[in-house]
Write a structure and sequence with these properties.
With about 950 residues, this protein is α/β, with parallel strands linked by helices. It has 4 domains: about 190 residues, no CATH class; about 325 residues, 3-Layer(aba) Sandwich (Rossmann fold); about 230 residues, 3-Layer(aba) Sandwich (Rossmann fold), CATH 3.40.50.12470; about 130 residues, Multifunctional 2-oxoglutarate metabolism enzyme, C-terminal domain (Rossmann fold, 3-Layer(aba) Sandwich), CATH 3.40.50. It is built from 30 helices and 26 strands. It has an 8-stranded mixed beta sheet. A 7-stranded mixed beta sheet has the order 16-13-17-18-20-19-24, with helices on both faces. It is globular and about 110 Å long. It starts with a strand and ends with a helix. Pfam families: 2-oxogl_dehyd_N, E1_dh, OxoGdeHyase_C, Transket_pyr.
Length: about 950
């Protein structure tokens, strides 16, 4: 902008443009805009110029404008590309493509490159006062006139230190200005001696701990933090800042790199426990109660309560997780969201995710998880992401592991700042971690810290990195550890003395030695170090027996009035209105209750009892098959209506939440698994749009849901709903691959349980999860309710039939929902015309309801509703009644799919036992189903129908 006669004209033009306007004005003043007429007239008559001098030649002003334009361009280049000038690499690796940098790829940011001449550098330029300026950088607030040289020197000072910030891609001007102010502050910031002394002590603990592990456990894998040691310094500073901001919960997820150092120094896990894990010393109590011996030491988690001098308290949790990189990310977000919902204040609960550089760029779940952050049903109002950047992934350098300049480029998709920082500057690292907390608390958004260091040893300390990166490791071998560099710096500057340093180091070494000696004692027992327990499971027995999941008729009728009577002011779609009318009518009449109605009854009764419901998945508000309609959209107004929220008791703290998820399976399922960990009084459900959508999240299923309790003693009551069934619609949306889940069951096929209540409970309690296929609405109702009516939690995999959701005959009478009823693991044949059990010739086991009336009355069809753990006790009682029958297992799936391979040995063991006891005539089980196939179903409806008819003809011949 230019000052002229105390007025400001804002510019967005070049010198050529101004010259052209002046020529037009000279010929005809009326041919240019009024502002320019006044400006040219004032200049000719002796108005003030850019520098406050008198000028009669407007072309001189055009030159000044061009100068100002180039200054603005210089600013812009520093904003956009300045981070590339920063001193970020402790190793100063050569400019080779292998390390992600090529000579000449960095922008040229010299005064010459911006077109400034030597004689122009000291010309003062007036930028106006704060009220006049459309653009201002924080440091420019101190005065109104700046020379080109002053601006360039200050920008270079800000952008060429050991940190670089990417923020210009952000939308919010307020947030960008906040970041610019922090960058300007850090450029001149100096830590106090007290702060540096504390940082030295933290860094000393990390260095000595790592050195101790290296020397004492030379053959053990530890995935040490050496090379990015300042991660620990930063995390401890982050916790301190969280205490100042009154954060109450911190949830951390990280991979194995640096995990032991984090547990020891940030979470204060006793050194004795860590050393004992290296020597495989476990107590009997630990083996029986905790179960953490199910995983390696650098996968384990822990919870710690930290008290601060001002009395503030923070509960810090490190989540356990497997070696599958980045898989823990959505789990952190889900658990954090659950705690936020419990606390009622999202800012009091903070999630921290620590990434690896190669994994950040390479793992798709990173993007899936990042995309959750600004969505209503999943937001944590800010997660702090920290990348432990070793500049290598095992043996792969950046040229082969990513296409972008930085491993953090994926984070630009969610409009957050990214701070790159040199890991060999402890003071700067500590301050940037504090900035991250302040940004998150103020703007309720994610922020990313890219901690750039190196990996001093191989991937697992036993590996030889020089095989693949000889140049890099030649440099690393000459590089002094960061503690040595910092120690020399502080001694040289007089911050610490030699006596202080030697005394502190001696104390730290003594504590390590003492801890090591303690584990050698016979009295050592580490049973006291266990995870914090769950929040209290809501007392369920006050509503009757735990296993009885039925509900009084008056309660069902009252619920019916509350949730199926729609407000008159709500404009509901006619088809949806008809569905609700039919639901209301079916409950009133006590018959014809379908799956959608049964689900609503289950949700409503649980809400009435004080539990909460959380359901998420793709299009789950309506339901993929238009069967749910838990959320009604007004047809004229932009409002949503949740009928089931009317069932929450007045003043109740429980919640009913239904969220359409993004088009993600891996990330969203991980989120819901994390959510289910924090509160056992919430029925947490993830619904796949089709059963085969589980394919996209198999890593989460294998490593968390089916094995988390046995590896880490982390219970979960998560429900996975997977629509399943061969309906002639092709292979992709036919099968949820139940065989994969059943293969993951840990129950013993050779144990036949007796018919005793305590044994039934023990069977499920000892299993890792449950797999059910409900063939009628009432059993579906009970399967959902028993998830919360127990005094323990287990994941439940529900394979719901797509066909039966709206099948006219797949309904239940209300009597099957009433008090005294419960979930049936196995349903015998109760057909009116069926012969007595002794006259039955064929006993068919299946897990689907027959659609047509059976023509033969000497064939019994028994439905297995709970596939796993298999109901040995119930099946044994039923099977021995059919002493003359042949036993057949039938499924519509192919022989290498479905439940056959899991059920066959279990059923066969019961039949063999009954045959030995002379209770049945036939002891062998026969299979009836489609032959083995690589694909789950035919793509032709005609072929599908022919296959089905052939199967039925064989079955009932």
């Amino acid at each position: 902008m230019i000052r002229a006669s105390n007025k400001v004209i804002r510019y967005s033009f070049s010198a050529t443009y101004v010259s052209g306007l002046f020529e037009h004005w000279q010929k005809n003043p009326q041919s240019v805009p009024e502002g320019w007429r006044q400006y040219f007239s004032e200049q000719i008559n002796g108005g003030a110029g850019v520098q406050g001098t008198t000028s009669l030649n407007p072309l001189d002003h055009a030159k000044q404008i061009q100068l100002l334009y180039r200054t603005y361009y210089m600013f812009r280049m520093f904003f956009v590309c300045g981070h590339q000038l920063a001193d970020l690499d402790p190793l100063n690796l050569p400019n080779t493509k292998e390390y992600g940098r090529v000579k000449g790829s960095r922008p040229e940011m010299t005064l010459d490159s911006f077109g400034f001449k030597k004689e122009e550098l000291d010309i003062p330029i007036y930028f106006g006062n704060k009220d006049q300026r459309s653009f201002i950088y924080p440091f420019m607030e101190v005065k109104e006139e700046w020379t080109i040289r002053e601006i360039y020197d200050r920008l270079s000072q800000i952008y060429t230190k050991k940190y670089g910030v990417e923020y210009i891609h952000m939308v919010s001007t307020e947030q960008k200005h906040w970041v610019e102010q922090e960058m300007d502050r850090i450029a001149q910031w100096k830590p106090s001696k007290e702060t540096q002394t504390a940082t030295w002590q933290r860094l000393a603990r990390v260095d000595l701990f790592n050195e101790f592990l290296k020397n004492r456990f030379t053959t053990s894998k530890r995935f040490g933090i050496e090379g990015t040691d300042t991660l620990i310094v930063g995390l401890e500073a982050l916790v301190d800042q969280c205490a100042q901001n009154k954060v109450e919960h911190i949830i951390v997820g990280m991979a194995h790199r640096g995990r032991l150092s984090t547990l020891a120094n940030v979470f204060k896990k006793p050194l004795e426990i860590i050393f004992a894990e290296f020597q495989n010393k476990y107590s009997k109590e630990i083996e029986e109660s905790w179960g953490n011996i199910g995983d390696v030491k650098y996968h384990l988690g822990v919870t710690r309560d930290q008290q601060f001098p001002d009395g503030h308290h923070i509960r810090m949790t490190m989540l356990p997780n497997p070696s599958h990189l980045e898989a823990v990310n959505p789990v952190v977000q889900g658990k954090t969201r659950a705690l936020q919902d419990i606390c009622g204040n999202k800012q009091n609960c903070l999630g921290i995710i620590i990434h690896g550089d190669a994994a950040m760029a390479g793992q798709g779940v990173v993007y899936e998880s990042l995309q959750l952050e600004n969505l209503t049903g999943y937001s944590n109002e800010g997660v702090i992401h920290v990348v432990v950047n070793n500049q290598i992934g095992f043996t792969t350098t950046p040229i082969d592991s990513r296409s972008g300049l930085y491993c953090t480029d994926v984070a630009k998709a969610i409009d957050v700042p990214i701070i790159h920082v040199n890991a060999d500057d402890p003071d700067l690292v500590e301050e940037i971690f504090k900035i991250a907390v302040r940004f998150r608390q103020q703007f309720k958004k994610d922020i990313v810290i890219d901690l750039i260091g190196y990996r001093r040893y191989g991937h697992n300390e036993q590996d030889q990195p020089a095989f693949t990166q000889p140049q890099m490791y030649e440099i690393i071998n000459k590089q002094k550890p960061v503690f040595q560099l910092y120690d020399q710096q502080l001694r040289k500057n007089g911050v610490i003395t030699d006596d202080f340093a030697s005394t502190e180091i001696k104390k730290l070494n003594n504590s390590l030695e003492t801890a090591y000696k303690n584990i050698q004692k016979e009295t050592f027992d580490k049973v006291h170090w266990v995870p914090k327990p769950w929040e209290k499971i809501q007392q369920v027995t006050k509503w009757g027996k735990v296993k009885d999941t039925g509900v009084a008729l008056k309660d069902l009728l009252e619920l019916n009035e509350k949730v199926n009577h729609l407000p008159a002011e709500l404009t509901v779609h006619p088809q949806v209105k008809r569905i609700y009318e039919q639901r209301k009518q079916s409950i009133e009449q006590g018959k014809g209750i379908d799956f959608g109605t049964a689900e609503a009854l289950a949700f409503g009764t649980l809400l009435h009892e004080g539990f909460s419901i959380r359901l998420s998945g793709q299009d789950c508000e309506r339901g993929t098959f238009s069967q749910r309609h838990a959320v009604l959209n007004d047809q004229k107004k932009d409002i949503k209506y949740y009928p089931l929220r009317n069932q929450i008791p007045s003043g109740g703290n429980n919640r009913f939440e239904v969220y359409n998820s993004p088009l993600s399976e891996y990330g969203v399922l991980g989120f819901e698994y994390g959510y289910s960990q924090s509160n056992p009084n919430v029925l947490t459900i993830w619904e796949g749009q089709f059963g085969d959508f589980a394919n996209g999240c198999q890593i989460m299923i294998d490593n968390f849901i089916t094995s988390g309790e046995s590896k880490w003693n982390v219970p979960s009551g998560l429900v996975m709903m997977l629509p399943h069934g061969l309906d002639g619609q092709g292979p992709e949306h036919s099968s949820g691959r139940m065989e994969r889940f059943l293969q993951l069951m840990d129950d013993d096929p050779n144990i036949v349980f007796q018919m005793k209540e305590q044994r039934i409970k023990r069977q499920i309690l000892d299993s890792n999860f449950q797999v059910c296929v409900c063939s009628n609405p009432s059993n579906y109702f009970h399967s959902l309710r028993r998830q919360l009516r127990r005094d323990f939690r287990k994941p439940l995999i529900l394979f719901n039939s797509k066909r039966l959701l709206k099948f006219s005959k797949a309904t239940s009478d209300i009597s099957l929902f009433l008090e005294g009823t419960r979930f049936h693991r196995l349903i015998p044949d109760t057909h009116e015309e069926i012969k007595a059990p002794k006259e039955i010739k064929k006993f068919i086991m299946t897990f689907y309801r027959k659609d047509k009336k059976q023509k033969r009355n000497d064939v019994a069809i028994v439905r297995v509703e709970q596939l796993a753990p298999f109901p040995y006790d119930h099946f044994r009682v039923v099977a021995q009644q059919y002493e003359n029958a042949e036993f057949v297992f039938c499924q519509e799936e192919h022989q290498n799919s479905g439940a056959w391979q899991y059920l066959e040995p279990r059923i066969q063991n019961v039949l063999s036992l009954l045959h030995q006891q002379s209770k049945i005539k036939h002891q062998y089980l026969t299979f009836c189903g489609r032959r083995p196939s690589a694909s789950t179903a035919s793509g032709s409806p005609t072929v599908h129908k022919q296959e089905l008819e052939k199967l039925l003809s064989i079955l009932f011949q």
